[in-house]
Amino acid sequence: MKKNKTYFFGLCLLGLTCLGCTEATETRALVNLLLIDAPGDFDEVWVEVDGVEILPAGIRGSEENASWVSIPYQAASNMVLVSALVDDTQLLIGRTEIPAGDISKVRFLLGDVVYLISDDVRTDMTISPDSEALLELDVDISTQSGFSYDIILDLDLAQSVVANQSGGFNFVPHLRVFVSTGLSEITGTILPISIAPHVMAISATDTFSTLTSDDGGFLLSGLPEDEYAFKIAAPTGYQDTTFTLLTYPDSTLTLESITLQASTSP
């Protein structure tokens, strides 16, 4: 697999932070919308991103009188190399102030162009007709006035890119949305840095996955407190590695560097 040079598109602190250079008014909260990726086994995946919409609670906390708030993605190009958003690389889609209170829904706005590149060949994907429904998620996010919140949109390419019977690919978006408050993350480095293994944390109810970046680093974020089977699915020529670990709320588990062993199979 080719490794892509990654770029940091937006600088924000994860989780709940007091406002620094960007301040909200006393009765409003600031939300930052950040896109990350759980990548699949492709050289590159490009997605047209139009923006995000969020639904804050209306008067007296009711959805019936609430209005969607639109945060368009404003960049020189709306085409985003989503497969490069690994380790601690994130795309800042946008930020806005909202009335302090609850957020009940988040809607990711996907454009019309989605394609992958494998072995230097571009393949345009067919977007699922259910994509709008799949990209509108119920959330339970509470905000307080005078604070900033990072809302993470984790687009799982490993599950979103689906081979079809005609030999092409469909894009069936698989998205989760979270804020890091109360959750955990696992970070570390896997050697050799050139092999880009799949890294997974598997609980009894869910699986979180990613790839390593150019320097071998990885970050699994938004993990609930639980016991996980931590698995490194190595490419041909190396042995898989699996062990058990525990995560705790509002914590970062930093693993020592892991060096994969060469396979002894012929």
Question: Could you characterize the architecture of this molecule?
Answer:
With 266 residues, the chain is mostly beta strands. It has two domains: 1-181, no CATH class; 183-266, Carboxypeptidase-like, regulatory domain (Immunoglobulin-like, Sandwich). 3% of the residues lie in helices and 52% in strands. It has two helices and 22 strands. The protein has helices at 131-134, 157-160, and strands spanning 16-18, 28-38, 44-56, 69-72, 79-81, 91-99, 102-118, 121-124, 126-127, 136-142, 147-156, 161-163, 169-171, 175-178, 184-191, 198-202, 207-211, 217-223, 226-233, 241-247, 251-254, 258-259. Strands 3, 4, 5, 7, 8 and 10 form a six-stranded antiparallel β-sheet that branches. Strands 1, 2, 6, 11 and 14 form a five-stranded mixed β-sheet that branches. The chain starts with 15 loop residues before the first strand and ends in a 7-residue tail after the last strand. Mean pLDDT is 86; it is low at 1-22.
Q: Over all CA atoms, what is the radius of gyration?
A: 19 Å
One letter per element, helices H and strands E, the order comes to: EEEEEEEEEHEEHEEEEEEEEEEE
- Tell me the total number of β-strands: 22
Helix % is under 10%
Runs in which pLDDT lies below 50 for 5 or more consecutive residues are 1-22
Q: Total helix count?
A: 2
What structural category characterises the helix and strand content?
Answer: mainly beta
* Count of folded domains: 2
Q: What is the straight-line distance between the termini?
A: 22 Å
Shape estimate: globular
Largest sheet: 6 strands, antiparallel
Question: Which range does the strand content fall in?
Answer: over 45%
Average pLDDT number: 86
